[in-house]
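Sequence in, structure out.
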Amino acid sequence: MNKNELLEHALADLGNMPAPSVSDGFMDGVWMRAGQLEERSSERTRLALFAAMAFVGLGAGIGATAAPASAEAASFRLVDGADLSPAALLHVEP
């Protein structure tokens, strides 16, 4: 027998085999597994976001505490000596 005859014989045997049957709960199992995979993916995403926020928060906290602090009097160039009463702003004489 040559290779073509062996192939034809194997294909004929496959063609005569009964089709496999799928159980009733097969698709339910598929959707359940898909839900489990989605749940795991969302958990990983939440964990990664939490880790990133913790890293940024700790970095900001460490950076803020290492900065020197000094008290200075606040000076506002726009309002120093200006009368900001409502009468002065409306140009009304009291």
